[in-house]
Amino acid sequence: MSTFRALLVEKQDDGSFTRGVVERSVDDLPKGELLVEVAYSSLNYKDGLSASGNPGVSRNFPHTPGIDVAGVVLESSVDAFAAGDEIIAIGFDLGMNTPGGFGQRVRIPAAWALARPEALSLKEAMLLGTAGFTAALSIAKLEAAGMCTDGGPVLVTGATGGVGSVAVALLSQLGYEVAALTGKASQHEFLKGLGATTVIDRSELSEANSRPLLKEAWGGVVDTVGGAILFNAVKALRYGCSLAACGLVSSPDIPASVFPFILRHVNLLGIDSVELPLTQKREVWSRLAGEWKIDGLDALEHPLTLDTISDAIDTILAGQMVGRGVLDLNA
Ligand SMILES: NC(=O)c1ccc[n+]([C@@H]2O[C@H](COP(=O)([O-])OP(=O)(O)OC[C@H]3O[C@@H](n4cnc5c(N)ncnc54)[C@H](OP(=O)(O)O)[C@@H]3O)[C@@H](O)[C@H]2O)c1
Q1: Which atom of ligand 1 is nearest to the CA of 316?
Q2: Per-residue pLDDT of the chain in tens (331 residues, 90 and over written 9)
Q3: What does each C-alpha distance from 225 to 6, 130, 170, 249, 321 come to in angstroms?
Q4: Whose CA is nearest to atom 10 of ligand 1?
């Protein structure tokens, strides 16, 4: 089929952005070595930013967002892939200024694609998607910095969101005691079902304060929100422990001092899933398909179609998404 359905975000003359599902032609797609029939994509916060015209994410409109793709190669001009191969692709420029997974076809460089790990279906790969990948990358970096299961509870912020919910589930499965920070009073049971031992209301950590240190509490932190919450968590890290920072839904700015670093020997670790070299991406995916394969991943699924994705984008931008939105391009 040379035409396909896609969500298209358009910039209007008054500077506003509108979105709708349209028919596109494969000739509209950019050059690239792989033409892929997208089976599944997933909804990440960054897709919300792209779909609402955030210039830090997408500058070229009209545009189809979707930073995650799992699908089948239709055409390949490289030896590494052949028609019929199942691949996953996350990050790089996919869905930023290159048309992404909210359309039934993408054309991408082969250097963005990984063969689907055998133990993950295309749908499972997208249940994880960039969010699940980032949760795993954060935990891997925290463990490389010394985090271990007898080092005290691990705090996950933005816990009901995509990165947060996978982090809670994975940490719990790995034997960690997990404290989940959430703004959603209605989702405490959901978080306990994922394995959180304690659920903390977001308001308890969201106020910036001038105290240089807080009582030692956390053996590690996966932070998806930034802002005052991030630094309150740093101030409460146990001696020598680390926080992995991946997100900014609360704020990109941090009210910080050097005290936790020079008095408690703690570490602030940066997490980037986008430009991480493909070899390192492959290692994280193999872990997620192997010893870190998450039981009961289905509990996180929020099924989406091209007809429901626009409403879901509004939900994620409002901070109200729970778990992982999985977009079935054939539904
Ligand atoms: N560095 C990377 O490579 C990378 C990769 C993936 C994602 N990210 C970033 O990580 C963040 C989370 O992404 P996601 O896809 O998981 O988003 P998401 O599904 O929307 O989850 C974010 C969660 O944060 C909480 N939250 C929302 N607004 C908040 C606020 N104002 N203050 C504090 N908490 C708030 C909510 O959870 P509760 O209601 O439970 O608190 C929300 O569900 C985003 O900033 C995203 O850009 C970065």
Answers
A1: 20
A2: 689 999 999 999 999 999 999 999 999 999 999 999 999 999 999 999 999 999 999 999 999 999 999 999 999 999 999 999 999 999 999 999 999 999 999 999 999 999 999 999 999 999 999 999 999 999 999 999 999 999 999 999 999 999 999 999 999 999 999 999 999 999 999 999 999 999 999 999 999 889 999 999 999 999 999 999 999 999 999 999 999 999 999 999 999 999 999 999 999 999 999 999 999 999 999 999 999 999 989 999 999 999 999 999 999 999 999 999 999 999 9
A3: 30, 16, 19, 5, 14
A4: 247
On whether the CB atoms of residues 81 and 34 are closer than 8 A, the answer is: yes
What are the residues whose beta carbons fall under 8 Å from the beta carbon of 134, sequence distance 6 or more? Answer: 163, 246, 271, 273
Structural domain of residue 205, as residue ranges?
A: 130-270
Structural domain includes residue 316: yes
Q: How far is the CA of 49 from the centre of ligand 1 (A)?
A: 12
142, 257: one domain: yes
pTM of the model: 0.97
Say how many CA atoms lie within 13 Å of 237 toward its Cβ: 31
Q: 41, 329 in Cβ contact below 8 A?
A: yes
Domain containing residue 263: CATH number:
3.40.50.720
Token code pair at residue 181: 């920070």
CB-ligand 1 contact for 302 (6 Å cutoff): no
Position 120: which residue type? L
Q: Give the residue from 46, 3, 11, 48 showing the smallest Cα distance to 309.
A: 48
Helix (H) or strand (E) holding 287: helix 278-289
The domain that contains 61 carries what CATH number? 3.90.180.10
Report how far residue 161's alpha carbon sits from residue 165's, in angstroms, rounded to the nearest whole number: 6
Token match 């080092």: residue? 151
The Å distance, Cα 31 to ligand 1 centre, comes to 32
**φ and ψ at 179, to 5 degrees?**
-105, 125
